[in-house]
Amino acid sequence: MYKRILTVQDISCLGQCSITVALPILSACGHEAVILPSAVLSTHTGCFTGFTFRDLSPDFDGIIKHWTDESIKFDAVYTGYLGNRNQVSDVERIFSTLTNPGAKLICDPAMADHGKLYCGFDGDYVKSISRLCEKSHIILPNITEACLLCGIPYSENITEEYVDKLTECLHEKFSATVVLTGVGFEKEKTGVLVSYSDGRKFHYSHKRIPQAFHGTGDIYSSAFVGAYMRGFDENGAAKLAADYTIKCIENTYGDGNHKYGVKFETAIPDLINVLMLNL
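^ thats the sequence. predicted structure below, dont judge the formating
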């Protein structure tokens, strides 16, 4: 169960997202977490202005060469927020040359939310992420990202028919299992839908907390990857990750001084307990 997982995403020095959450969560799940930072930001881009951004693409070749020379291999590659679209080719190169047999490529196409792209991204970036999704075994988009990948207009009216249209399109474009977040069919509920290419579906509904926090998608994806690589199936990993993310939000909700992220650290003991109880 002890796996070596490479995660490729940015480091936001303050903000509780991306590698800042992926590294401790994957480690808490009992894995060796290896990082390849796509960029370094002073803070995340969600609710801060004037943040610094340094693209680390020029370092990729040297790092990949060193790993190649050392015969380093990975059991999974998990991608999140990439610094630019050119890094997709580097991820593809890593997956084709630096992975063990049976390794998993898991892509969180972290590029958009609430109907719009993140700052600095455009249509060309969406096309590049789409190419990475084509190589992936599992993709973890939210509703907005699924719409962008499919070219379907975004709607806040989440119906079963609308979600079916999204997942059908995603399966037509990609061979990956789809883990779609933000799927709620009731006013006070949200949830996650796991959709398989053979038509099977699993929907896990949970309560909706009436406040948006930055970084919860990264927390969800990291917990999903950690549980999945520990032996949970996709449905079990999706449920565990949702419960853990909700716990992180609950531990933060109401703290007006902590609006830039969630206190995921306080819920790590809960995550470990659930992992131990289910294995």
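The first helix runs from residue 19 to 28.
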